[in-house]
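Hey L., structure's done. Input below.
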Amino acid sequence: MLMMAVVPTNGAAQDSLKTVKSEVTVGVELLSRGELRNGGMTVDPDNPTSEDQSAFIIDRERIKIEFQRDWLDLKATVQHVGTWGAEGEATTTIFEAWAKATARNGLFAQIGRQALVYDDERIIGSDDWVVMPMTHDALRFGYEGYGHKAHGIVAYNQNMRAVDSPGSFYADGSMPYKTMQTVWYHYDVPKFPLGASLLFMNIGMQAGRIGGINDDAPRTEWQQVYGGYVKFEPKYFCFEGSYYRQGGHEEHGGKLEAWMYALKGQWIPNDQWTVQTGYDHLSGDDYVAVIKEGDLGLVRHDVIKGFNPVYGAHHKFYGAMDFFYITTFINGFTPGLQNAYVGGTYSPLKGLTLSAAYHYYATGTQLNTFNKVTMMDEMLAKTLGHEIELEVDYDIVKDVSVSAGFSYMTGTDTMKRLKRASADGSLRWAWISLNITPKLFSMKW
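Output:
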């Protein structure tokens, strides 16, 4: 029915096809990024002095082919990712491969491996900073028109080895979940700079194990993420706000009752300056959560209160050093996060942008821990640390750009204990990146 709404029928079809224009484009992306880390998390958790002090260069190459013809869009991207000099660790994958049909009345359907980006990418995003951003094997469909956008997403993942055997146990696959269903609705107010979205996700995570019995038997645990996002853009300003809740059960069976909210304000007086400030608060647990058998000083939670921003672009929100929601706390602990920040950008020349930001980090809840020496509970300070970020971006010529950055963080004793970070509390990280993105070939007929 979707194709019938687009392609004329009967004798008119042949006349229309003569006027349909097709276009194919071939492009390349080459990314090389060198990083220098000093005073990060420990390499060996049993040896607190084995600090992460390393230097390396990573690269990513992509070949993109895009095709457009009237109602049909196709895209395929082959991606290679590796570290210079590493043997046997490079990966070559299909980053995207999808087909999309769009009707003139606003209906569309898209199937295949695709990057999903919604709202500010807080919950669903594709962060290009990560050399292997997340994509989803999914069917996406919906309607867009007259200020309304309504999308539905359906995904189901399987291991090849389970296709011909009983059951559908899914583990160690290319996607993080077994099944996912999402509904998203967005509305832009006519002639007024206000837009708002509602999101509902139902995520099925594989639990149990092959051959397990009773509580260990293979099963699917379901969790839900739902909430909304608002963006208001009057002249010279931009205000954003979001609130989400998380319920259901995580993959080990623990009940989820978590939440988060975020507020952000920007002042944009002209094309050169941008000033911003904001605050994120993600709920957390007050004790380390342990499922089933525990350890001295650890507690099993009947309810998990640590919010997980699932498939969002975490690097974009929680600091350039990626300490939060990209790397985990000890024992999978979920203490939540408070992130208060202020920063800005300045463009003194065309193609040149200077950026600076300050972050204050704290846990999302008051922490209690068990002291094995005194055999008593003790309370940890909430503050995790202070981070300063500097970045410069410059467009050298068309399709060639370079970026560089430096981050410095002073961590607290709480940070050291929860992340096993540097013993002296001083964390440093520098990087430089070259990005080349030429369009090699384009043809219309």
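The chain has three helices and 22 strands. The longest strand covers residues 22-38.

-- N.
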